[in-house]
Amino acid sequence: MLETKNLTIRFGGHVAVNDVTCSFAPGTLTAIVGPNGAGKTTYFNLISGQLKASAGTVSLDGHLLSGSPSTRTHAGLGRAFQLTNLFPNLTVLENVRLAVQATRAGAHRHGMNLWSIWSDHTALTGRADELLAQVKLQEKEHASVASLPHGDQRKLEVALLMALEPKVFMFDEPTAGMNAAEVPVILDLIRNLKADPSKTILLVEHKMDVVRELADRIIVLHNGQLVADGEPAAVIASPLVQEAYLGVAKGAA
Q1: In angstroms, how far is CA 128 from the centroid of its own chain?
Q2: Domain count, the chain
Q3: N or C end of the chain: smaller count of CB under 10 Å?
């Protein structure tokens, strides 16, 4: 269970996230929606540690989370945004293999030394190949990351996130910048992750067709406040949400 209590951040006199209390259970995908400037990405940044809260707490499985994004990653939070700092001069395969290696080193840090992890080249490469196959990048595994188009870099970010095996997956507009042919790959990956009842998934997304297709629950932020929370059909049908928060005029279909 991921939970935020009274989470708040102020920038001078502006309150970007205002007293947001919300919990997210394993086995569910929650979409976080709202107009531009509503506080969605700032809320993500507070949860994952990119920003320090002015007030309130973030906890995972009853344990308070604090400190840097890397500390929270080790605790079980995984965010694609954190992984955009790829190694551009390494190959696609090398990037994923490093993520797998880091995960296994962390999992065995009390029982294995780093040399034994590094020497297990075949197993690391095999796992990296599995992940690349899932994101449809196996044919580009020997290409440098710098040579990849934007859509393929987004797919690589998801592969790295999966390599970390987090308890919580946080996706901030995962299909942004992708063409129509690339989007189904990412949506299928998220569906597969959603099928695991032990995983919690948070999704910031502007495309309502994606939200309708994937979400078990929608929360709506506006001016940094939580203004709606419920099943997708009920939230989307709300006239208040349609007009003020999703940009749909009254009377629109």
Answers
A1: 20
A2: 1
A3: C
Check: CB of residue 34 under 8 Å from CB of residue 40: yes
- Residue 253 domain-assigned? no
Residues 233-245 have pLDDT tens digits of: 999 888 777 775 5
Q: For residues 222 and 235, what is the distance between their CA atoms, to the nearest angstrom?
A: 14
What is the maximum alpha-carbon separation in the chain? 65
Collapsing DSSP to helix, strand or coil, 14 comes out as strand
Helices 92-107, 150-163: crossing angle, 10 deg rounding: 20
Point out which residues pair with 181 in neighbouring strands. Answer: none
Is 252 inside a domain boundary? no
Six-digit token string for 63: 């344990």
Length of the chain: 253
Classify residue 92: in a domain, yes or no: yes
Q: What are the beta bridge partners of residue 4?
A: 22, 58
Query: What is the pTM assigned to this prediction?
Result: 0.84
Q: What is the CATH classification number for the domain harbouring 88?
A: 3.40.50.300
Give residue for tokens 């309130």: 56
| C-beta of residue 92 within 8 angstroms of C-beta of residue 137 | yes
Cα–Cα distance between 145 and 133 in angstroms, integer? 16
The C-alpha atoms of residue 116 and residue 66 are separated, in whole angstroms, by: 31
- pLDDT tens string 129-147: 999 998 899 999 999 999 9
Domain residues for the domain of 168 are 2-245
Paired tokens of 60: 């995972």
